[in-house]
């Protein structure tokens, strides 16, 4: 069982008399996690947080990733995100389990399946060089069931490019602003829209950008209200948070 709906189904079976309380207790005891030795796979993540556990690919062998993803797949998990996965291990993984791999953000989706698309999240970048981080955010949000609009290369060096897409920005429930260099894009967008803005500093830039630290500090010091900041290059974290915001807004519809 991989989500709250299956637990509710089990409880209804107990209420209907089709399952004994003892059988249900045994099933629930087996659910929280499975110990693979090198990983403890959390099957209750979707119950607590609304989405299955995400596999961080960097630092793991292809065999470890396969073991974790296959264990999740056998328990019914679909659209399992594998982040920071390089092309070579991704090829090895794809030989064993079904995987949809995206090389630019180095992100894979194991056991890909159709998913809902609700609300509207805009992912905007300062430049084309920020696309890897932006795509990690966009794909994460899409897999979690959100409609995503991409506005790439609309940075402040050519502000007219951003202003020409104001309608899409104004329509969004949440905007993810991805930028390196001086990170000014988040402040500009934050001053234009009435929805939350998630700023993502990237490590793109010349020497004095200090690997994204300059953009991070600029975004943290933004005077635009409603602008929050995630870690450098953390597209996944931004996409996940944007999904939470978008779907909370959707409950009010």
UniProtKB/TrEMBL annotation:
GO biological process per UniProt: 'de novo' IMP biosynthetic process
Short name of one Pfam family: AIRC
SUPFAM superfamilies: N5-CAIR mutase (phosphoribosylaminoimidazole carboxylase, PurE) (SSF52255)
Domain PurE positions: 119-251
Stored InterPro entries: P2CMN_synthase_LarB (IPR039476), PurE_dom (IPR000031)
Molecular-function GO terms, alphabetical: hydrolase activity
Protein name: PurE domain-containing protein
Organism: Butyricicoccus pullicaecorum 1.2
């Amino acid at each position: 069982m991989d989500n709250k709906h299956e637990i509710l189904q089990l409880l209804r079976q107990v209420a209907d008399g089709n399952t004994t309380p003892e059988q249900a207790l045994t099933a629930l005891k087996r659910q929280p996690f499975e110990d693979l030795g090198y990983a403890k796979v959390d099957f209750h993540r979707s119950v607590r947080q609304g989405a299955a556990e995400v596999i961080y690919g960097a630092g793991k062998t292809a065999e470890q990733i396969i073991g974790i993803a296959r264990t999740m797949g056998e328990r019914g998990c679909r659209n399992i995100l594998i982040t920071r996965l390089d092309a070579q291990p991704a090829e090895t993984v794809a030989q064993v389990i079904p995987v949809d791999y995206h090389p630019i953000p180095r992100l894979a989706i194991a056991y890909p399946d159709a998913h809902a698309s609700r609300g509207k999240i805009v992912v905007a970048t300062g430049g084309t060089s920020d696309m890897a981080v932006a795509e990690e955010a966009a794909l994460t949000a899409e897999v979690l069931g959100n409609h995503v609009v991409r506005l790439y290369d609309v940075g402040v060096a050519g502000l007219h490019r951003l202003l020409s897409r104001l309608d899409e920005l104004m329509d969004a429930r949440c905007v993810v602003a991805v930028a390196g260099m001086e990170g000014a894009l988040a402040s500009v967008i934050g001053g234009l829209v009435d929805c939350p803005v998630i700023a993502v500093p990237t490590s793109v830039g010349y020497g004095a950008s200090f690997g994204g630290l300059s953009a991070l500090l600029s975004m943290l010091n933004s005077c635009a209200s409603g602008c929050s900041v995630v870690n450098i290059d953390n597209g996944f974290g931004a996409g996940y948070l944007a999904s939470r915001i978008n779907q909370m807004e959707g409950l009010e519809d």
